[in-house]
Amino acid sequence: MLRHHPLTGEPIVYAPERGARPRAFLGAPQEERCPFCPGHEDDTPAEVARSGEPWRVRVVPNKYPPADGAEVLIESPRHSDAFHDLERAEDVVRMYAQRYATHADAPHVALFKNHGERAGSSLAHIHSQLVPLPFMPPRIERETHAFARAARCPICAMLHEQRDDALIVRETTSFVWLTPRDSWMPYQQWIVPKAHVRDLMPLAADAAAELASLLREASAAMTAIAPAYNWTFLNFPRADAAHAYIDLFPRVATLAGLELGTGAFIQVVDPAVAARRLRRTP
């Protein structure tokens, strides 16, 4: 059910049934039987896609959906894997692109990973989530308007005229992994396509091995800093001026009263220092 903030009108997804999901609240014990492990396939809703036989990636409807059509992408049959442990991570990236395309008619498709309890994960087994939203999220609206107002794409400028090699963690033929100069979270990173594309997913399908390699390295680097991290794909498929990217950060800071009460963030790690530390991860 969709409700709205009584003052701003911003959307609020009202889904009280999600309170029944495993570890919905901090401190709750982990389930003894993992529904994502091989042999427990009947513990999930019927799958909608898989890669490999036996499966390497499996996609199922979310049992506790925040919105209709929400899916869980189970990224490995091995319970203890992290993303950087995956031998065929490009299979996961291709599945991201495939499932995103399936829901492309939605106003916005949220594709994200919560790794670790502090990042919001309710199950330890490696997975990501895809949520087709029936509205345009406030962040996407704000960034879409910002791109439209800019005389020059800010991300293209960051990669070219304003390029700062001290902030580059790694680059490939198609992507740059960097720490934004004006980041707002400690050790925040972006993975940015070099080409000006408003929708990352077609490129992700074509350059799956490249993107998978960067995501594996980012996962290793972030878990060397903290046991939990988030990443989310920011796509703007209907906004020509926009430049798609992936936003990533380890969960080393707590959003407290100032941040929650004002929407203003306090950055405590210099992005150049963050880039140096991320580059040092084996």
Class derived from helix and strand content: alpha+beta
How are helices and strands ordered from N to C?
EEEEEHEEHHEEEHHEEHH
Number of strands: 12
* Quaternary assembly: single chain
Rounded to the nearest angstrom, the distance between the terminal CA atoms is 45 Å
Measured on Cα atoms, how large is the radius of gyration?
A: 19 Å
Tally of alpha and pi helices: 7
Major sheet details: 10 strands, antiparallel
The residue-averaged pLDDT reads 94
Shape: globular
Folded structure, characterized:
The protein has helices at about 90-100, 140-150, 155-160, 200-205, 210-225, 255-260, 270-280, and strands spanning about 1-5, 10-15, 50, 55-60, 70-75, 110-115, 125-135, 170, 175-180, 190-195, 230-235, 245-250. By secondary structure, it is α+β, with helices and mostly antiparallel strands. It has a ten-stranded antiparallel β-sheet with strand order 3-4-5-7-6-11-12-10-9-8. Strands 1-2 form a two-stranded antiparallel ribbon. A hairpin with a 6-residue loop joins β1 (about 1-5) and β2. α1 (about 90-100) packs antiparallel against α4 (about 200-205) and α4 (about 200-205) crosses α5 (about 210-225). It is globular. The model has no long low-confidence stretch (mean pLDDT about 95).
